[in-house]
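Forum: Protein Structure Q&A
Topic: Joint prediction for protein chains with partners

I've read a bunch of threads here and the consensus seems to be that you should model interacting components together rather than docking separate models afterwards. I'd like to see that in practice. Below is the full input, 1372 residues plus whatever partners are listed. Could one of the regulars post the assembled result?
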Amino acid sequence: MASQYDLTTKIIPYLDRHLVFPLLSFLSEHEIFPAEELIKAQYELATNTHMVDYIASLYQQIHPGEEFSAEFLKKREDAVATNARLSEETDPVMSVIQNPEVAQNLRQDKLQNFNYLKETFGVTPEQIIALYNMGQFQFSIGAYSAAADYLYHFRILYTQNDLLLSAQYGKLASEILSGEWDKALDELNKLKDFIESGLPLPTINAPATANTPGSAALTQLQARTWLMHWSLFVYFNAEDGRSALLETFLNSTYLNTMQTSCPWLLRYLAAASIISRKGTASASRTVRTSLQTIVKIIQAEQYQYSDPITTFLTDVYVDFDFEQAQKSLKDAETVLDSDFFLWEFKGEFLENARYVVSEAYCRIHQRIDIADLSARLNLSPTEGEKWIVNLIRDSDSRSTLAGDAKIDLEQNVISTSKPSVPVYQSIIEKTKGLAFRTQVLGAAMAKRASGDTTVDGEGVEKENVGGSGGKGRRGGGKPPPAAAAQS
Amino acid sequence: MSRFFRAADDTDTESESEEEELLTSDEEEEEEVPQQVAKSKPTGMARFLRTGSGDEDSSSSSSEEEESDEDDDDEKGSETSDDEKTVVKSARDKRVEEMEACGKASDNALKVGDWNSVGNEFDKLGRLVERQKNLQEPVPTLFIRQLVNLDKSIANAAAKDKDSKKKMNAAAARALATLKQKVKRALKDNEEDVKAFNEDPNAFESMYQAAVAALAPAVKPIKVVKPPPEEGEEENDTFTTVGKAGKVYNFTATSVMKNLAAVHESRGRKNTDRVENITILQKLLEVAETPYSRISVLLALIAARFDYNTAVTAYMPVEMWLSTQKNVDELITVVASNPDYVVQEVVTVEYDPLEERTPQTENGPVLIRGSIISSLDRLDEEFTKSLQNIDPHGTEYVDRLKHSMGLYKTICCAQLYFVSKNHSDAIARAIMRRVEQIYSKPDAVVQALENGAVPALADLKLSATIPTLASCDSTKNLVHTLCVKLYNTDNSFLRTRAILCHIYHYAFHNEFYTARDMLFMSRLGDSIYNADVGTQVLYNRAVVQLGLCAFRIGLIKEAHSALHDIFATQRVKELLAQGMHQQKYGSTMSPEQERAERARQLPFHLHVNTELLEAAFLVSSMLVEIPLLASIDNEEAKRKAVSKPFRRLLDFADRQVFTGPPESTRDHIMQASKALQDGQWEKARDLILGIKIWSLMPEEKSVKEMLGRRIQEEGLRTYLFTNSAYYTTLSIPLLAATFSLPQKAVTSIISRMIWSDELSASLDYVPSTFDGAVSGEKLPVVIFHRVELTRLQQLAQTLSDKVNTLVENNEKALDAKLGGSDGARGGPWADGEKRVGGAGEGEGGRRERPSRGGRGGRGGSAGRGARFAQGLGNRMDGASTRRAQ
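Posted by a regular:
Agreed with the consensus. Here's the joint model:
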């Protein structure tokens, strides 16, 4: 069961070697797969790194009592030697940079910085690249924070594009592995901007596709896929990461990426949207309406991916089959238990899942038997009652339960009354934006008439464009400020 | 011109014509019998007799000779029949006669002084002589004499004219002037002949006769006087006769190249007997021994066969096609077994086609000009053309269809050969042909085709391999492998076609999601308008097949939206190239357009059954639209919401005063729709399942089951929409019983309707009031909270909607005017538009999907008809050029 829904094998191809170690050790802790195989896998994984001591310990676990091969010993020596060589190369630069006087003189402009260093201290481009090599080496021996440090400096000073992306990835991985979530989040956003900036991305591991048509799009797709996988580490650890995840993943480009190349990430999207259900007071509109969107996507992708978590959502929102949802929720529990990213959020998830169920249930039913609802939520009647009371009390103004649900203890039911929206109100809603929109039109026309043909780059971001969908930006002129304020 | 120059000129022309002789001698052998040959054509004699009567004298000696030949012939001649004699005779004699007639007419006109008609006659004569020259026949004396005469007459006339200029009218003067010019030119062209003639007309005459009699291969009599002796000797040595049709050919291995060159020479000329050329080449093929000559002959033969039909519309006779196919096969076998010979379209090295060439190691393989892939293309096209022209309901069609097996074999062999030679362009084209052969066929047919092809592949004994059904397990994999190869080519035309075939194939095998994803990710919908008509048709076919596929697996909404676009155009048959454009008022097609469209039609066996298509579309329309119709309560909104094609039919059915029992598929569906509206789902189901056309679907049973279920569900929804106004509560068990659905399913359907605000209601339990119910048992019910709108409120709502649309339209109009970019389309996606190869990882195309699911059947339907590729008819010019890429 747990191994059936295990995503580790799907995720690993999109991760860095070093990022896989935590995943594997998590798996061995939870005993989902045979321990021996896992250790072997860890060993295989480690052999290509320079973490010699770690390799040694793994080797001994697999082959207790055996001697290390000569090759291995040589590797160890090599590693030490490389370390010495690289630190020699980078020392001058590092000493220069760490000089407080230099730090003060550094500016925003990379080129200027580099020229400054070159003129004042004789720093050569080779030395800068040595920083990168050092960072990479430090990373490969497992000294992540040192790697982060080196890469940070490298990035400040390096002026070309080619190694920058790699350095970005390295920095992000280092931050993730050293557990600096805030910094990692920062790095993640930088990397995202970098990918979205539309600069030609250096191909990561697909030289074969370099010249085929659409290779640029393909590289971008790859980069996005990687980014999404790596971001899981950050989003499920950083504070407020879940809503950040929703913001990112629900962005249409990332949704497309997910649907195209990694539908399994739907699990995390679904889970994140359930988890952040309650704390949505501060979140933006996209997060609040996320569940509906996600359900649609889950439905669309059902043919290529489903697990108990996504099934739970379809059970509730598509089939309204609460019994089935209850079962799926139970399955989802076990899945959560064995998921590296989600296990910490099990409690929150269940709590919010209950909320999701009860909300849907209450909206459809007029009178709800508390015992019945409790059963639906996997709770005992008394627990259930308490829970529901809390639910009604805590529910904020957006919820359907707000204010119009009452508990009738005599019959042990909750009754909800749904006042239908008055016609007047709906008409007012509909016509609200019209005056403003018309004014915008008028202004644009006036601008055009006055001969100013340059379309204002800012445009007017409109909140409510109506059902046509996807039309966010219009190339109209700016409205007269006074008019805008009035409407 | 000085004497000296003239002499130089003479030698020049002489050497030239000698070369010509070499080239053309074979041809002359075909037409005219060399003197040395014991047996000779009777033609010659007959002509002499006739010319003798026409001209003032003829050489009796030659005619006697001919007579004796004739006797000879009769004695021996078992194989020559009289019919053939006359046939052959007339062709030559006619020309001579024509010339004579011309000459006479010219003389007459001359006598009268009608310069105009003299000019015309002279032109005619000139043309005839030109033709004579083309055929390598000697220029008759008649012409020269005529020329000299004319020259004199003109000189006279001019002299006379000087005296009495006034007599001649302007037109005649002009005619005379032009004629003078022409004669001058002709005189110059035939200077030598004229000179010879002037010196001694009689000698010249006899010389000509000798030339004809000798039938020596020379254009100009001068050369005829001294026929090249070596030629004669050679022919004496090696001559063999083949007496078919009374003609004698020199078919030996050594002379193959000569004969071939002769055929090449005549190709494309007027008055070439194509059938004869083909026969000659066939004979040559029999005697050709070396690979080089075989390849050359085969190339020529294949080309000659394709030349057989000059008309574009006519198709190659089946027999001819079969032998062509055999030749192509043979050609491939020969080149495959002789890797030192390579057939290429472009050969930079100049070579003498007459020379036998053998591979020399230092020069690499012998390159021969020609194109196997074009032959393959033509072969396939001819096959399609014949299928287009054969009545699809006769046995002939079926017989013809069987030949596709051979064609497929040839294509596979060619592909294998190209792979072994690594001709990337040719490989791609061959693969495309192969994919087009199999993409729309059921597995069993593909299996048969493959079984036919595989042994032939093994026979080629090439080290390269190509994917076969056996190596790919299933047709799906086979098509996939082949298409992936095509995605990697540079040719975007082939890529587009490949992905469309691929989509079609997936849809055909009920892999709806894969096919749909490919269609979206390829983003073809945006660019298909720029494609050629053939590709557009393929696109339409793919979309339609996708719709059918969705229908088969029960995705009614998807089926509806896929099929809606094409049905909205009302030109389904035309868009699928399965029928001609129906001429309507105002729009007429030019004959060229009509012909082009006729050429585009798909052969019958590839057709998508339009009746089935229509049934699928209308049934899915019914299932989508009827509940929708019921959910909307004011008339105006109804009119807007429902898609036109369905609405039109429904209205038509409504207007009918009497409705008889349903006959056509359409009748069935319309009556079912009405029954569904009335809540009689059982009647609706029976009507729908009674449609016979479903039996065409392989999954008939499951489709019917699915339809029954869907009718129950949609019946329930319709019922709830229609009747919610008249009830405050409805018992769920009762609903479940009425619609034969499990109670759970009913609850689920109602819940979904409540959740999506389609139905203003909620679920509740009331104490059961049924007799016999256990007291205290609760009965689940639906409680409706319906708010009746007053007239004023309704109007206010409509008004607000309208104002909204108005503003939106204004914004759109302004956007278009200002050219403001549509934000949704810009950004980093601009580069992502292109399709990415392989499994189509282009992510951009997915954008539509989430919104699609959300819109359901309705929102998306309006105005999307335009998205269908309809550019038939009016785009043909561009298309034909593009096709040539």
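Chain B has a mean pLDDT of 71.
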